[in-house]
């Protein structure tokens, strides 16, 4: 029987175990440049089967929060090279989560102080994290976005392609396309945020078009085996909504390449109830996976949101999942894999230090003494 602690392949990625560090925004990369503290943080957690970086903006237009890293300046790419080198030296594997926030941004973060972009000019009832002129950070309401012109969409697809190439050159083992949690690609998928009347709006097929164009551009550039995607069928994060998530997301997974590295599914409300409902009926995650597998999809299936040790063991042993991503537990347990293997006590995460700051609550969580 397959174990959570067994090695596995996710496309081109050969993983030493099936425990994944989920993408976690920490707001500790001023000027969007990864620094030595970030390197230490990822290096400490390199025993994960796979590390997924925090959301990383593909362009300044795609930047939605202060002090999150980017993938679009020479300085940021040099910073990421230090991170990937350190993780590889520690025996780990790491992919970068490629992020365009769309409307979940603020004019102070946008090129020339402009409006954020979105499928439609509908403001997200959400907040983002900005820097005040005095250098203090603060959460602020997101700014009103402008609707992208149809002709602009191809340019953003090209931005994703370029960022994927840059990621490989910065030493990443692959990329995860962030299509979850109410950010740009998810905004296009959901009818609540996408009111377009062109070929990118209206029907499910049209609302998924942009996502498929991004996937096609990235897989053509770096290969499907190094490309993954994150989806969140029912999350209400950042004010997204669709009354029929089941047909929408079954259409999405059925349109993904068979040979992707992995498909990453957030089950329920992100960081919240796993049984969260959007629409009238509970979401059927087994049917979602079947919609991918039945059409020939071979990518590893990764699950996330509120998993504990026993749930993760059962998810893999039952065949419901190939990989399980842990977020908060990796914040406070750099050696989570060893602790889960030994069923050892776990450090509790300190919510007060999740976002912003320095080493406290970031690189100062204790690892268990190495067993001789
Ligand atoms: C990248 C994020 C996501 O996917 O929800 C994020 C952003 C800010 C705070 C927490 C999480």
TrEMBL record:
Q: Name one Pfam family in it.
A: Oxidored_FMN
Query: Which SUPFAM superfamilies does the record associate with it?
Result: FMN-linked oxidoreductases
Q: Which InterPro entries match?
A: Aldolase_TIM (IPR013785), OxRdtase_FMN_N (IPR001155), Oye-like (IPR045247)
Matching entries from CDD domains are given as: OYE_like_FMN
Superkingdom is Bacteria
Q: Where is the NADH:flavin oxidoreductase/NADH oxidase N-terminal domain?
A: 3-346
What protein is this chain from? Alkene reductase
